[in-house]
């Protein structure tokens, strides 16, 4: 696995990476006079810096070794990093003298919107940058061989496709050469597992500009994986007492005012449809331009619809907990520059559910949700994960616009969520200021093959929306009370979860999940009839089996299906046809086995039925 080391500003490695970013910027601006600066932060495996090069200058990966050489000279020069703090007015004047328009834009934002009364600058040698730090004391403290510039990419300023395109130089950085080397090797393995690469090779999905950016189209192989995940969810949720529901893809604007989402999420919602309703007689309600058009939005989340379903009929304490589940499609208009394969999309199928519970039921229901997560992850063979508990920050100056301001409810909700995590002995971290606006949140963080933290699923405790929707239940004492709501999505979205599965398994899915589970390969045309008999027997057990009837050689047929990562190859020749047997080749296992046909079918059915992730026979 790549050597990823997340750092904070108090860590030495953070200072190393941040300082190296300035060294790189100095080397670049010296070699390419007139280059303008963007941002240059440390990241989990190194750092990057964004530049706007003068007209006529195009940087490529071939230019990186020359920049590295210049960086090592700067490191050897023992340049001290010197900090200077300037008042807001002096800072703006300084940046205007530097003729750095992007820095000036950001500085004005910090001062005018962020309330900064001063800004800091760092100088090393001739290089000056507006920066909050921290840095090393001198360039000589930096490892000459502890970094590697590895790629050049385009990046919109501030991640907005409406802004200018900058050139971003990425670098790995650690405290010694060996760790950089290990990381580079692991990154190559991660590239081989990249879900965008394997998604094409294994015919899982496509994204076509004529359909729209960020809107995946699932090819048959991908649709099968989706269907298997949905089947798993439906069966698991049935055992846990969930009830299925279904809701429309669009809804009126008023629903999101009631929920409180619209003012907070409008920027990532698709623009509304404006519709004049028809009258009962069938005529237009008004001439064009007259009257008031209703606004309808593509839904970005399912919870408001589920709240409406809850209040569709009277509820008693005897009805609770009420667990409503839906694989509902939602739409979010993410910025174009942030879209990435299946991990960041604009249309997604979400493994969503909402549990309506009494105060007394809350702890047990939270624990049951977490147990469901553990059951799923054990099934898939996941073990490198932890929970991230996100809380509100009562000291945040923007708290009025970020959170429902009910301190007592926050205090109770956060305590009960933390109690559930501790009673289940789950490893978790705490992040202040990252809660949902209506309550604390638990994100499940996985370590990917690239070594980065990856949010696979999320759960939230909501003490606010039920009241906003007027949701009540009649308690045993005859009084109306407001339920709590638990939002949970243990399998996240189809898109993100399948991306994670592709990379986790390297495209070699366990048999139950594989689009094609079995391919029968006849040695010659004489065994085609027997191969088709085996296929039909497997299909009768709902096993996805095909026969390879191509004219390719035996060796090529086998290589083709190994490349496709088919879990089970059954080779049949004259001997197998006569003895009603098959020769079994399992993906990733060198040993072949000859088996009675019925025994093979029975073992395969058991493996699929039990959804094993290990090939044991």
Helix/strand layout:
Blueprint: H1 12-31, E1 36-37, E2 42-43, E3 46-52, H2 64-76, E4 82-87, H3 88-98, H4 101-112, E5 118-124, E6 127-130, E7 147-156, E8 165-173, H5 177-193, H6 195-201, E9 205-206, E10 217-218, H7 220-239, E11 243-244, E12 250-252, H8 253-259, H9 262-265, E13 273-275, E14 294-298, H10 303-310, E15 322-331, E16 347-357, H11 362-380, E17 385-391, H12 399-402, H13 407-423, E18 428-432, E19 441-447, E20 453-462, H14 465-468, E21 473-474, E22 480-481, E23 484-489, H15 494-505, E24 518-522, H16 528-540, E25 545-547, H17 554-563, E26 568-572, H18 574-579, E27 581-586, E28 592-596, H19 597-609
Parallel strand pairs: 11-15, 17-18, 24-25, 24-26
Antiparallel strand pairs: 1-3, 2-3, 3-8, 4-5, 5-6, 7-8, 9-10, 12-14, 13-14, 15-16, 16-23, 17-19, 19-20, 20-23, 21-22, 26-27, 27-28
Can I get a quick summary?
The chain is α+β, with helices and mostly antiparallel strands and 617 residues long. The chain contains 19 helices and 28 strands.
What would your notes on this structure say?
This protein is α+β, with helices and mostly antiparallel strands. The protein is built from 19 helices and 28 strands. Strand 2 and strand 3 form a beta hairpin. Helix 1 packs across helix 2 (64-76) and helix 11 packs across helix 13 (407-423). The radius of gyration is 29 Å and the shape is globular. The two termini are 28 Å apart.
Question: Strands of the biggest beta sheet: in what spatial order?
Answer: 11-15-16-23-20-19-17-18
Q: Helix/strand/pairing class, anyone?
A: alpha+beta
Mean pLDDT: 91
**Estimated radius of gyration:** 29 Å
Q: Main β-sheet, in a few words? A: 8 strands, mixed
- What count of helical segments does DSSP give? 19
- Beta content: 15-25%
**Poorly predicted ranges (pLDDT <50, ≥5 residues)?**
1-5
| Rough outline | globular
**Helix percentage:** 25-40%
Number of strands: 28
């Amino acid at each position: 696995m790549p050597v990823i080391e997340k750092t904070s500003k108090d860590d030495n490695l953070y200072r190393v990476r941040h300082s190296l970013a300035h060294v790189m910027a100095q080397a670049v601006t010296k070699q390419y006079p007139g280059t303008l600066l963007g941002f240059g932060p440390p990241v989990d495996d190194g750092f990057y810096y964004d530049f706007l090069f003068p007209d006529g200058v195009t940087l490529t990966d071939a230019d990186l070794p020359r920049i590295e050489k210049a960086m090592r000279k700067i490191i050897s020069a023992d340049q001290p990093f010197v900090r200077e703090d300037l008042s807001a007015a002096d800072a703006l004047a300084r940046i205007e003298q530097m003729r750095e328009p992007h820095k000036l834009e950001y500085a004005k934002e910090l001062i005018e919107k962020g309330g900064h009364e001063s800004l800091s600058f760092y100088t090393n040698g001739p290089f000056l940058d507006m920066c909050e730090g921290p840095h090393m004391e001198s360039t000589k403290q930096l490892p000459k061989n502890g970094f590697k510039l590895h790629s050049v990419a385009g990046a919109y300023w501030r991640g907005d496709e409406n802004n200018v395109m900058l050139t971003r130089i990425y670098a790995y950085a650690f405290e010694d050469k060996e760790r950089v080397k290990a990381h580079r090797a692991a990154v190559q393995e991660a590239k081989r597992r990249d879900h965008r690469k394997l998604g094409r090779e294994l015919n899982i999905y496509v994204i076509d500009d004529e359909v729209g950016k960020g809107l995946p189209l699932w090819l048959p192989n991908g649709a099968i994986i989706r269907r298997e995940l949905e089947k798993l969810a439906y069966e698991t949720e049935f055992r846990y007492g969930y009830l299925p529901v279904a809701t429309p893809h669009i809804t009126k604007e008023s629903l999101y005012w009631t929920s409180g989402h619209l003012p907070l999420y409008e920027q990532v919602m698709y623009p509304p449809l404006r519709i004049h309703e028809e009258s009962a007689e069938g005529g237009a309600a008004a001439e064009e331009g007259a009257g008031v058009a209703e606004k309808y939005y593509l839904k970005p989340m399912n919870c408001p619809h589920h709240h409406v379903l809850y209040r569709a009929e009277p509820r008693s304490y005897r009805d609770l907990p009420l667990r409503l589940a839906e694989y509902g499609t939602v739409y979010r208009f993410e910025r174009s520059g942030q879209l990435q394969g299946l991990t960041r999309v604009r249309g997604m199928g979400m493994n969503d559910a909402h549990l309506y519970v009494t105060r007394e039921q809350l702890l047990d229901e939270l624990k049951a949700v977490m147990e469901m997560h553990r059951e799923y992850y054990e099934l898939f063979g996941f073990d490198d994960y932890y929970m991230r508990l996100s809380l509100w920050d009562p000291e945040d100056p923007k708290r009025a616009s970020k959170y429902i301001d009910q301190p007592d409810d926050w205090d109770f909700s956060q305590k009960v969520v933390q109690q559930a995590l501790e009673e289940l002995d789950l490893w978790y971290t705490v992040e202040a200021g990252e809660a949902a606006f209506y309550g604390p949140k638990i994100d499940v963080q996985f370590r990917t093959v690239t070594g980065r933290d990856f949010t696979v699923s999320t759960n939230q405790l909501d003490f606010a929306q039920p009241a906003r929707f007027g949701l009540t239940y009649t308690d045993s004492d005859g009084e109306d009370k407001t339920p709590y709501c638990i939002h949970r999505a243990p399998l996240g979205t189809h898109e993100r979860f399948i991306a994670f599965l592709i990379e986790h398994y390297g495209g070699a899915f366990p048999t139950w999940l594989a689009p094609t589970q079995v391919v029968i390969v006849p040695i010659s045309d004489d065994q085609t009839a027997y191969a088709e008999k085996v296929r039909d027997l497997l299909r009768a057990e709902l096993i996805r089996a095909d026969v390879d009837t191509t004219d390719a050689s035996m060796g090529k047929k086998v290589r083709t299906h190994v490349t496709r990562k088919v879990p089970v190859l059954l080779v049949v020749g004259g001997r197998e046809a006569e003895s009603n047997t098959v020769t079994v080749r399992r993906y990733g296992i060198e040993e072949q086995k000859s088996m009675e046909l019925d025994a093979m079918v029975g073992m395969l059915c058991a493996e699929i039925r039990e959804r094993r992730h290990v090939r044991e026979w």
